[in-house]
Amino acid sequence: MFRNLSFLCLAIAALVGTALAAEPVIEKYDVEIPAKFLVPYKGAFADRFPDGFTIGVGSGLCYVGKAADGSRVFYAIGDRGPNADAPKFETAGKPVATKMFPAPDYTPSFGALRVKDGKAVLASLVPLKDARGRAVSGRPIPLGSVGSTGEIPVDDKLAKLSFDPEGLDTEGIAIDAKSRRDLWICDEYGPFIAKIDGYSGRILKKYAPGAELPMIAAARQPNRGFEGIAVTPSGKVLAAIQSVCDVDGKIKESKATFVRLLLLDPVTGAVKQYAYPHNRDDYKISGDAKIGDLARISETRFLLIERGKCADGKTRIPVYVIDLAGASDITGVKTADGKELETLADRAEVEKLGVKYVKKTLLFDLKDYGWKPGKAEGVALLPDMRTLAFSSDNDFGFTFKVVNPAIGEDGKPVTKIQAYTVDGAGQVKYKGQPVRTKVELEPTGTPSKLWIITLPQRVDRY
Q: pLDDT tens for residues 35-44?
């Protein structure tokens, strides 16, 4: 009896041990930003930010390698810089969308994160430069340009700022397959893909819709351009448009069944397009689905973050292994009446046209592990093929609030800032009438997050 009991205990212990071994190991870090990397700010609310804005990194992530001192090193890239929503700008009697840039000369940058001894620290920062070596800004490109978001930049006093023809809203970073000095980045404005010199930050070649890239990419929703980028072992570049393309101006009604992925061959210039099937049933409308980032597994397989607020009001951040093998190149494929495939609401109808979707396998949902930020914008895969890193940005450590809101027809304060307009003199108006409403900035103290998750088996076995 005791012998059988001992055997039973050993069997239970083995099962428990296996279960415990199957759980991922998670390291959680707040990214530390040294004072020398803070963003200078001398604007209207400078007294609230005596040290400037904390820089936001984590919009994109890739693994670099292990340093001599044992540090794990990542490249992390930030977005267009400190920005906030603002009232629409009155121009030629018409309200035009705006975006506030309290530090308008900020240059989008990337840097090295070093992880060691329980800390994740930003160790370097490289500002981006155009092809002529001049610093770019994060301000929007001019209205009417290919890839313009249709936004007018304003400062923290709501005065109009100049556009930047070379402006970038960077969201992804990856290392070139042939030269580790060269990096690939992607942007939400154009959307653009660019190859850069990783030492100087200078753009070596820029790829734009209607030129090197298909024009359909410019149909991305404003500020929903390329959100992730990865480079295959052979040197091809995969970029993910963040959300469903707005092909007919009816994005709020869209029931599109996929988000476009673009695969660029820099050697030949050829571009293929693939249909990634987002979790359409999870969202109120297809336009709510978003992609966070990509990381390479093999020539055809990648990690992909999907995220968004679902129909039940909850935010989910599922992480998938996706496979392009067997998927169709949808370049030039249209409906029977010549419309874009995004106008079809039924996957079966798309498949009748011979389209094969990208395959996807769920790894896990970051939210199930206690991930708190509302978004995850960077993912990297380490060489052991079991360890994944995830990052979020911190929106430069501030948020905005509407002060002295107008009262709407329903008797409630109007807190949506886009419901207001502002004229060239800085006067805020509601429904054409001057109001005392203002937009103010306030610090959040929120750090960028970095999580490193080690899985029980290699991702290429899922």
A: 999 999 999 9
